[in-house]
């Protein structure tokens, strides 16, 4: 079985990772790579339905553990329908958020048991981890300011959380980075978009493509 390259993009809200992902695709395809992109929660019909429930600003009564389990359920369906087929066919797969988001948001952000979240992630992914995770780091206030300046972006339930919650999320990401520095590469997302895209592309190219193109 041919195995593809599994890359995830993570970061606090407003870090710009989704835009960077979109900019990376043509550059990678220009090198002859078959690129698949997807996102969490979502990426396939069932998971997108779950996403709409999680992020609906009207769902203010949602319990923290309910939120976590909805993310986990969406992840399992996404894995089976989108992630594994892409990797089995040898694709270069770019995923906007994956297992680290649950630890950062529901673990550090919500205060849920990170060991339990780790077990759930392990269970639903059958132990699958990304080959590389690009973590886009930005000051929380600047990230939220970017969101408020973006008139085309819908405000979801997580965007409405307190500054303190978002600060805890960033702290969580930095803790994961320290623990798994071989897998996760930190990128300064406060730079210009062009600089951030170049930094992300360089990491991918040097790690996976430099001697194969």
UniProtKB/TrEMBL annotation:
Residue positions binding ATP: 11-18
EC number from the UniProt entry: 2.7.4.9
Broad enzyme group: transferase
Top-rank taxon: Bacteria
Domain Thymidylate kinase-like residue range list: 9-198
InterPro entries given in the database record: P-loop_NTPase, Thymidylate_kin-like_dom, Thymidylate_kin_CS, Thymidylate_kinase
Key words, A-Z: ATP-binding, Kinase, Nucleotide biosynthesis, Nucleotide-binding, Transferase
Biological source species: Streptococcus azizii
Reactions this protein catalyses: dTMP + ATP = dTDP + ADP
UniProt key word Oxidoreductase: no
Name of the featured protein: Thymidylate kinase
Listed HAMAP family: Thymidylate_kinase
Pfam families on file: Thymidylate_kin
Molecular function GO terms recorded: ATP binding; dTMP kinase activity
Family as reported in the entry's similarity comment: Belongs to the thymidylate kinase family.
GO CC, alphabetical: cytosol
PROSITE patterns: THYMIDYLATE_KINASE (PS01331)
